[in-house]
Structure formats: structure tokens, C-alpha cells
Amino acid sequence: MPNFLSTPTRVLCLGLLTAALAGCAGMTGGARPEGAAAASAATSKDSLAQTSWELVRWSQPGGALRDIPHGDNGEPIRLTFLAQGKQYQVNGFSGCNRYTGTYKLERNKLVIDAPATTRMACVPPERAKLEADYLRALRAIDTFTLDSGGAPRHLTFNLRGGDVLEFERRQDPSTP
Q1: Total Cβ atoms within 10 A of residue 75
Q2: Which residues contact 116 (CB under 8 A, 6 or more apart)?
């Protein structure tokens, strides 16, 4: 097959393709709301503010349930949404470490930015894997649902890979 592109043109095309792919790899997208309650929550950044959630169920594609052990001190995996002024943060406990990051609810999507974590040792290896998978999951939310718009008690994240994370609301943090 003849080569119709000159060397400089091929280099430019390759560079543009590489830049485009690199941009796509860094994007976290955003979770679309499913259901009336989630759609209502997605209209305001403050909808999830000052709520705290515990991961109670992790279903894998095909229906298998993943074990969700508590941390060494009995602390469950937790996700808290906080808002103060125009700062929207998430924080919690991921199985071994504490984490913090930011969240956005805009254009009807929930986006949780890559959280930063403490660096405590995580043993046994199964719990370390669960923690890493959980933190990755927060950046792979495809859709989310809430059980009601007023005072939701159940939050679900449907991940791009097919996993489903279910949270139950716990005692909310105090308002700053």
C-alpha cells in the first residue's frame, strides 16, 4: 500500500493522536443521575452536602458480592460530602487510610476528583486491594441513584465496569 503522508505530516498526526489519547485517559467523566431523586440532587451542588454514607454492599458483574471488611479499629468504608462556601469536598475512610478530594454536581453529573490518601500500611493484602479498588471506583462512577429527593437514605454508584456500590446514610456531619 502506498504511503501518501510525508514524514512531517505523519509525525504531526501521531503527536495529535497521542495528545488526544492522553487527554482521554485523564478524564474522569461524570456520573449521570438515574431516577427522579438523583436527577433532583444533580441540579444543585449542595444536594449531597453535609451527608455521610457507609459502603454496605459491593456487587460485581454477574451478581457476586464482594466482602467489605471494616478497618482495624472497626471503622467502615465511609464517604462524606461537605460544602463550605464554594468548596465542595469528599472525605472518608477507605479501609486502611483516610482520603480527601473534591466533588462537583454540574450539568446533571456527579464528578469525584481523585482523592488523596494517608499512607498507612494496609494488611492483609485483600484489604489493600479493596481499598485501591474503592478509590479507583470513586473515579469510575457511570450513574448514581438516590432513594428519595428530600432526605435520601440509600445512595448507589453504578460503575463503568459493571460493579455496583451501595451506601446507606449515617449520621451527618455538623454544618460548618
Answers
A1: 14
A2: 99, 100, 101
C-alpha cell at 142: 457511570
Q: How wide is the angle at C-alpha 144 spanned by C-alphas 27 and 151, nearest 5°?
A: 135
Cβ(75)–Cβ(93) below 8 Å? yes
Three-class DSSP category at 137:
helix
CA atoms of 19 and 109, how far apart (whole Å): 25
Evaluate whether 31 touches 110 at the Cβ level (below 8 Å).
Answer: yes
Q: Which three cell numbers stand for residue 82?
A: 461537605
d(CA 173, CA 6): 62
pLDDT tens, residue by residue, 121-149: 888 899 999 999 999 999 999 999 999 86
Q: What is the pLDDT of residues 13-36, one digit of tens each?
A: 333 222 332 333 333 457 777 776
* Residues 134 and 77: beta-carbon distance below 8 Å: yes
Instruction: Name residue 116's amino acid.
Output: A
What are the C-alpha distances in Å from 64 to residues 61, 67, 135? 7, 10, 20
